[in-house]
Amino acid sequence: MSYAVKEVFLTLQGEGVQSGRRAVFLRFAGCNLWSGREADRAGAICRFCDTDFVGADGTGGGKFSDAEALAEAAAACWGNGLDNRYIVITGGEPLLQLDTRLINALHARGFEIGVETNGTIAAPAGIDWLCVSPKAGSETVQRHGDELKLVWPQPGSDWAAMEQWDFAHHLIQPMDGPDISANTRAAIDFVLTRPKWRLTTQTHKNLGLR
Length: 210
Description:
By secondary structure, the chain is of the alpha/beta class. The protein has a single domain, classed as Alpha-Beta Barrel (TIM Barrel), CATH 3.20.20. It is built from six helices and nine strands, in the order ββαβαβαβββαβαβα. Strands 3-1-2-4-5-6-7-8-9 form a nine-stranded mixed sheet. α2 (67-78) runs parallel beside α3 (100-108).
């Protein structure tokens, strides 16, 4: 299987429980909830995405012929040393492309694998840290993992049902955009009244990281 990758780069994880951790980010091209084209945003299921996942023209991106080639590119991005290797596989929607062959190839190179998904596709075995970020209007089939991250506010999100899903951490993240101040206040108020949840913010943006 070949892989279409928007970008591969070294940074710090900026969101969730793993915030602050050195990580290779592998961003797959493509998503099943929005085409990525602005002309299609208003009619998409997910309308608030702040990520460019179209094409394969980003830093380190391209078409990779097989899992070994892509895993080698990730290892080269990490650099020297095998200790605490961590990769975050994201998108778009990474589970459109992530498969057992790539998981095995990354594990063979010493990577702990984190995945950030919208939860509409069941996750393959072998993922070490699974973050599911449900989108209102879609069906979340992946209802267990390590962290559930709900971008807020999202009218139509059944957060009460999500509290019963099997996740170690339930997180609320303010929706970015022109209303970020109001959304942050709303997220804080949500957590103050619902103690199962914790606040997470996009710290990489505050630090000027990708």
